[in-house]
Amino acid sequence: MLKLSAKAFYEICEHAKRAYPEECCGIILLKDGMDIVRPCTNIQNKLHAQEPNLYSQTARVAYVMAPQEMFYIFKEAEENDMRIKAFYHSHPDHGAFFSEEDKNQAVPWDEPLHPNCVYIVISIYNNREVKDVRAYTWNHRKFVEIPIDKFSMNR
Ligand SMILES: [Zn+2]
Question: Which of 5, 21, 147, 154 is the most exposed place for a label (fewest CB within 10 A)?
Answer without folding.
Answer: 154
